[in-house]
Write a structure and sequence with these properties.
The chain has helices at about 10-20, 30-40, 80-90, 115-125, and strands spanning about 50-55, 65-70, 95-105, 130-140, 145. It is of the alpha+beta class and about 150 residues long. The chain is globular.
């Protein structure tokens, strides 16, 4: 029996959203909107904390894995390029490219100066191990793509 959306709890709605929009290993990224939906599902439990995630992709842009690497406070998450490189080299050695992302619990999707600086720092670090940074996406009420704004 189908449950009426009005009768569904927020937890059930969140669970269904996560089930529908989370990529599985081997899925191919089709569009920025599919990546954004996947990231929104990943950040579903980060409503009050900034979190930083990575999507690992193979040479065919198929998903190897995705995970939240860092979680911080309401308006910041410390991101360590060394740990990003370590997870690629040790945990996901088949990675050829990545999409980075973080959420802004405030809902504002505009990148801060520190967002821009860490993006460039990570891009440089990734280049040293021949990993392509496809995008860095900020999830707020809307989303911001560094690639779409030609800031990579």
């Amino acid at each position: 029996m189908k449950q009426n959306v009005v009768q569904m709890s927020d937890d059930l709605i969140r669970e269904e959203f996560i089930k529908r929009f989370t990529f599985q290993t081997g899925d191919k990224l089709g569009s920025i909107s599919s990546a954004v939906n996947h990231l929104r599902a990943m950040f579903a439990d980060s409503e009050y904390r900034e979190s930083f995630a990575i999507i690992y992709l193979n040479t065919q842009h198929q998903v190897i894995d995705s995970q939240i690497l860092f979680t911080g406070s309401l308006d910041t998450a410390a991101v360590y390029p060394r740990e990003v490189i370590r997870t690629i080299m040790i945990d996901h050695p088949r990675t050829k490219s990545v999409i980075l992302a973080h959420n802004h619990p405030s809902g504002c999707h505009t990148p801060s100066r520190s967002d821009e600086k860490i993006t460039q720092k990570l891009k440089s670090a990734l280049e040293t191990i021949d990993i392509e940074l496809l995008d860095h996406i900020i999830i707020g009420t809307e989303f911001y793509s560094f690639a779409d704004h030609k800031k990579l």
